[in-house]
Amino acid sequence: MKLLTRIVSAGLMAAMLLSAIACGTSGNEEQGTTTATQAVAEQTTVGDAASTEPTETQDPATVPEIPEVTYEGETFLVANDIIGDTKYSSDSMFNFEVTGDIYEDAVYDRTVLIEEKYKIKLEEIKVGSTDLINTVMAGTDEYDLHTATLSNMNAVVNRKCVYDLYEIDELHLEKAWWDQNAQQKCSFDGKLYYTFSDFVITGVDNSRATYFNKTLHNQLGLEDLYQLVDEGKWTYDKMAEMAKIAVSDLNGDGQITTDDRMGIYNGNTTFYEAMLTGCGAELVQMGEDGIPYFFWLEEQERFVEVYQTLLSTFMADDIYIKGGGELDNFKQDRTLFTIAVLSYAVKWRAETIEFGILPVPKWDEAQENYLNVSPNGHALMIPVTVVDTDRVGNILEALSYYSSKYYSEDAAMPAYFEKALTAKSARDNESAKSLEIIHDNICYTVKIVANSLSFYTQLDNFNMNISSVIKANEKVQRKLLAKTIEELGAE
């Protein structure tokens, strides 16, 4: 379809050119009529990246700068660590057959396009972080690209196994198909060893979203949640207020359990990790100097306020019930809210369940953005053993651009969202904006440094005296952080 469109467009351009030559005169030029030569000079073929100059009406951030190069049958090999990982809605970066699945077919289109356009063969194999490290230590130029979970980044970066992506000139990381939030959260001391783009869904698929039961929401006559999001009023206290209304002791035994109707039903770590991040109190944050720091130490007063407020708010009135198996409760209309990975949207659309998608609530209306934690997605890296970085950079840039909406509304990333929105019977148009907000405001967990103090255990034990826990662990944690930063080679 895209190829046909380009052929038709080329035909129309040729017709316009011939017409302009036949009709053009010097008198027309004097009257301001555009000549055929001027018309051709002013055209930019964005989809094919033939021009490096955007038109005046185009945002330069959405115009690719990929050279017209070919690689005559060479193989572009991706060491894909996500193969077989069940936490994602899809584990493949390439697809070589049409399946009828909207996302998989978009990946197939991308695979064919890149292979034909650049005369290259795309291939992926399952390779873990340990194997990558061993390959690099052996000095073998085997893999062109590698994916690794954020939890393994410390070992990969510490052993200097990957390039600083800022040094790969062929990567235009300021462009819109590269995740700008990832660059802020995943960089270290002005260097970027791993990141995310629209080429991979792992970052957004792993991000947390708020799900609400539409049937129950309508039965209770609650406020329009999408309007609250639009107006910046979707906050933690608004969530708690609605959840309290939903709570009902259905079996009359005097306590709220999974047999009753719950306001919020969630796994403890998932819920509080998302809420702390959503309220701007993420445990590890990135300083303006590019060095990570412990928010709970350096901004302890603010952290304690958010921690205690969230815990006291959701402990009250049986608003929050801890547990798993969120889908079953949603299907039986027994819980109003749950926070879960965005990949659930794709899986739940196959069920007979009416649900909507929202970003994670903010702290208050004054907070600028909705922040949606993505704690353990697989990021993109280029091994230092790669010799031809020009080739790898060009192909990775192309894979990222041709996956984005800036190339086509039928590209892989738009197709992923379409799949997350479309059920058997209808499309959830109202949740579309929420997906865009989540995509544009992913908050990647900084795991290049480790926080060995388990706040989630404290939350699980309903420990309000978190200040004493911080004080008791402060010296040890500061030393561990300083040692890690030193090992990572901050200049």
Give the helix/strand layout:
Blueprint: H1 2-23, H2 26-30, H3 36-42, E1 74-79, H4 102-118, E2 120-125, H5 129-137, E3 145-149, H6 153-158, H7 180-186, H8 202-205, E4 208-213, H9 214-220, H10 225-230, H11 236-246, E5 262-266, H12 268-278, E6 284-286, E7 292-294, H13 295-298, H14 300-315, E8 320-322, H15 326-331, E9 335-341, H16 343-348, E10 355-358, E11 372-374, E12 378-381, H17 389-401, H18 412-421, H19 432-440, E13 442-444, H20 455-460, H21 466-488
Parallel strand pairs: 1-2, 1-3, 5-8, 5-9, 11-13
Antiparallel strand pairs: 3-12, 4-9, 4-10, 6-7
> What is the second-level CATH architecture of the largest domain?
3-Layer(aba) Sandwich
Helix content, binned percent? 40-55%
Mean pLDDT over the residues:
88
Which fold name fills CATH's third level, the topology of the largest domain? D-Maltodextrin-Binding Protein, domain 2
| Rg (CA only) | 25 Å
Proportion in β-strands: 5-15%
Q: Supply the CATH class of the largest domain.
A: Alpha Beta
State the secondary-structure class.
alpha/beta
Strand tally is 13
Cα end-to-end separation: 51 Å
Give the overall shape, derived from the CA principal axes: globular
Task: Profile the largest sheet.
Answer: 5 strands, mixed
Largest sheet, spatial ordering of strands: 8-5-9-4-10
Tally of separate domains? 2
Low-pLDDT runs of 5+ residues are: 1-51
Number of helical runs?
Answer: 21
